[in-house]
Amino acid sequence: MNKWFELILGLILLIGVILIAWYSSVSQWTILGKDLNFLHSAWIFLKGGIFWFVALLGLLFIILGISDLKE
Question: Are 38 and 24 in contact (CB under 8 A)?
Fold first, then answer.
């Protein structure tokens, strides 16, 4: 693909996602009684990703420490 097309497409997608997340948080989007607040869902997903990253980083350091003790 053309590099400019990829850049423009990426910017359009990023701005679109930001606008959808913002608009869904300021207005009440519901389907069959379920709230569709995408900003809240994205925040929960990000916090979960940070949690698992730190947990796996700790596990990696433990494995590296055990490996160093063997030598």
Answer: yes
Instruction: Enter the DSSP assignment of 35.
Output: E
39 in Cβ contact with 27 (< 8 Å): no
Residues of the chain by 3-state class (helix, strand, coil), percent to 5: 80, 5, 15
According to the model, what pLDDT value does residue 69 have? 83
Asked whether the whole model's pTM tops 0.85, one would answer: no
Token pair in block for residue 47? 């916090």
Q: CB within 8 A of 25, min separation 6: which ones?
A: 37, 38, 39, 40
